[in-house]
Amino acid sequence: MTLIQMQPRSADANPVHRTAVEVMDAAGPQVCDDMSVEVALAVMAAARTGRLVVCDQDDQRIGLVTRTDLTAVRDSGAHTDRVRLRDILGDTDRQPHP
Fold it and tell me: CA 79, CA 27: separation in Å to the nearest integer?
């Protein structure tokens, strides 16, 4: 008799049937919405990821930001060190809809 070892199927195996929560879970590290753009970019670099899940003060997921989103804000003329992730979420149009 030959033994067969079964391995569980990855959540990424069938992306068509993934829920929004699964997509956000797979997106990357979670950060708070009061984090500055510069710190978020540093977190991305340290985590070697291109996106972050943004959570509010109640630890609820409220959006997703990418390295492209953050570098565009950082490089814009209106950027200051006071710009927080919550300030740019509407601009990135990545907030989940109820």
Answer: 25
